[in-house]
Please model this.
Amino acid sequence: MTRSTPSGNAPPSRHAAVLTIDGVSKSYGTVRALDDMSFSVQPGEIFGFVGSNGAGKTTTMRIALGVLSADAGEVRIGDRPVDLDVRRTVGYMPEERGLYPKMKVGAQLAYLAQLHGLSRADADVAVQRWTERLGIDGRVGDTVDALSLGNQQRVQLAAALVHDPAVLVLDEPFSGLDPVAVDVMSDVLREKAADGVPVIFSSHQLELVERLCHRVGIIAGGRMRAIGTVDELRARGEAQLVVHAPQAPAGWASAVPGVAAAEQSGERTLLTLTPGADDQAVLAAALRTGPVHEFTLRRPSLTELFREVVTA
Model:
């Protein structure tokens, strides 16, 4: 739904806003939680924000919402810094439950929608839409504390979506969900991105991040350590070849140019290549030993890359 705003004080265009984190730093006493954090999330992009506990993910998200103030830098949605009016256009799902436990689900969602500017009638329509979409329409008359943790998580997502946000910021949205609920939430995030909404979410479930996200940022020690598409990030890792040459003698690849290391596992050999190595030369060397049943380029998974980046 489109809502009118006073002239000269309009929020960013709905579903067409870039979320920009620009040089944000934050310290707690002597602890540097964020150090010159900069990245952007484009309209229609799903951005995965990953890092170890304490890396600075939640601090970044809270600053993006205006819940915390930065020591330096700026957060913008569209071309505007985040203020109260802009914040109303954001859907936020915190890692910790941010719901009233003794309030009924339907009444709570309608109340939150109205806080974001919807009329009571529009809020009721939105509550019905999202509770049905998330499979909790049968629980609107229950209090939140009567729900399972998974259903509480669905209500929390409904609270982030009920006002038709221009930006979605989700902190560990998949935590505690069963596989069916994970699929539902994944579909919702894809749908919102297809509608032009910038979506950023943090997660420790890196297989989900790899599957869902257009780009990924890896944060460690309050700094962005790596950013790019999954393919771009995986290409940063060492190239490896899996070779199945059943007649090859032990150590057959040790003298092949471009092979930095070889690890034998039965009839298969895992070769680590130096940058710029000629894989065709490796294949020719393997064929000289006899038939080759497998010759596969292997790149590190996002999980392997994450370990490499955060321990560097």
